[in-house]
């Protein structure tokens, strides 16, 4: 299967970053491809590609997320988490720091793809209460009585 086109063009990415050196274009394109693949994996069946494999109109919020995700990977390819100058120190993140979606970005992508983030399921318990009424000897309305299984509450 051929790979899908990036959700943002290299030219648009460069414009949003303030330019990309010619020597960095291949790395920038790789970051865009990775970010696009990650976004598509979160979007379910939505890939923003037509039947011929051409890119359809991508929602502006998805473009913004793609630029943010690819920008993080492009600006910080080594996954550097912290750095100190005096008595030099450096800290690298784990392997997942290169390309990732934040929780907010996941919600944005799902919403743009028309995926519901809220749902419901019906649960059935083996301990469903059985409500019976008990007559009152001195008159009046019957009293509701709850039992669960063989136990009376």
**How would you classify the helix and strand content by structural class?**
alpha+beta
- One letter per element, helices H and strands E, the order comes to HHHEEHEEE
Q: Into which percentage range does the β-strand content fall?
A: 5-15%
Residues in helix, %: 25-40%
Helices, by number, come to 4
Gyration radius, rounded: 28 Å
Q: Order of strands across the widest beta sheet?
A: 3-4-5
Dominant shape: elongated
Briefly say what this structure is.
Helices cover 34% and strands 14% of the residues.
What does the model show?
- With 153 residues, the protein is α+β, with helices and mostly antiparallel strands.
- The protein has a domain at 10-112.
- Helix content is 34%, strand content 14%.
- It is built from 4 helices and 5 strands.
- It has helices at residues 10-17, 25-42, 60-75, 103-112; strands spanning 80-84, 89-92, 130-134, 143-148, 151-152.
- The strands form 2 sheets. It has a 3-stranded antiparallel β-sheet with strand order 3-4-5, with no helix packed on it.
- β1 and β2 (89-92) form a beta hairpin.
- α2 crosses α3 (60-75).
- The radius of gyration is 28 Å and the shape is elongated.
- The chain starts with 9 loop residues before the first helix and ends with a strand.
- 17% of the residues are buried.
């Amino acid at each position: 299967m051929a790979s899908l086109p990036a959700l943002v063009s290299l030219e648009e990415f460069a414009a949003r970053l303030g330019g990309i050196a010619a020597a960095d274009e291949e790395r920038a394109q790789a970051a865009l491809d990775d970010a696009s693949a990650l976004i598509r994996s979160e979007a379910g069946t939505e890939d923003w590609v037509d039947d011929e494999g051409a890119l359809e109109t991508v929602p502006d919020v998805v473009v913004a997320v793609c630029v943010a995700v690819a920008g993080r990977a492009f600006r910080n390819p080594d996954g550097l988490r912290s750095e100190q100058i005096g008595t030099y120190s450096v800290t690298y993140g784990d392997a997942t720091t290169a390309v990732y979606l934040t929780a907010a970005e996941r919600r944005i992508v799902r919403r743009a793809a028309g995926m519901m983030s809220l749902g419901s399921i019906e649960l059935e318990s083996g301990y469903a209460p059985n409500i019976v009424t008990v007559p009152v000897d001195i008159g009046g309305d019957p009293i509701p009585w709850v039992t669960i299984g063989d136990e009376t509450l």
